[in-house]
Amino acid sequence: MRSLFVLHSALLLLILVSPSPSYDQAFRLGSEGEWTASQQRHAPFHTVLEKNDTRPDPSKELLRDGEYGPAREIKRFTGPTIQLRGTAEEIGLDSRALASGLEMKFLQDFAFLQGNFAFDKTYETWEIGLFDCEAWTVGLTYPIAFHLQCVAGSMDEPRHWRYATLGYGPKEKIVETIRKALDSIIGEYASFIRKAHSKKDGGT
To answer: Do residues 131 and 113 touch, judged by C-beta distance below 8 A?
Structure first.
């Protein structure tokens, strides 16, 4: 009971130190044995804590045109980055391995925009996209709490888009969990950019 109290306190602290949520941000906490972050938007998780937000999900066709803002002008992304906080490295997370997987998934989902991270010409700052993530874990043994957040946008507005998720679970599953969560978040952002570009091109 005490360990769960400490866990919940740690997760609440992570929420407090995180930036205020944007319209496309979700905070969720899964139950024991059900902590895969990438499933939290789809599977029937027991939700202990959820940040209510009445604004629409960016993956839905409900956003007003103006809310896509600078995303419309992005023509090229630099390589995505990830930073590890708390006990992340101590429990087996490797920033280089995660960054490599992040780059591969990013290029896969953004194939409609670019095939690599090389710049073949000069771009304006508002045309260059950034995608940065942070994985923060608390604890060395079960239950390990995690907080994963990614922010994205142009160089002029690098935090225009944000997405974060919370959860807890066993140490042996954390690497897989973080990777799947990153894949899911990249997919969300790729859909958002596609929609933004279709708005710019006059699509519906």
So the answer is: no
Distance CA 163, CA 21 (A): 8
Q: With the C-alpha atoms ordered 197, 187, 136, 55, is the resulting torsion angle positive or negative?
A: positive
**φ and ψ at residue 141, rounded to 5 degrees:** -130, 170
**Which percentage of the chain shows pLDDT scores above 70?**
65
Alpha carbon 29 to chain centroid distance?
A: 15
Cα–Cα distance between 174 and 143 in angstroms, integer?
11
98 φ, ψ (degrees, to nearest 5): -65, -40
**d(C-alpha 46, C-alpha 129), whole Å:** 36
Minimal CA–CA distance to 93: which of 181, 28, 17, 189? 181
List the single range of 113-117, 121-125, 169-173, 188-192 with lowest mean pLDDT: 169-173
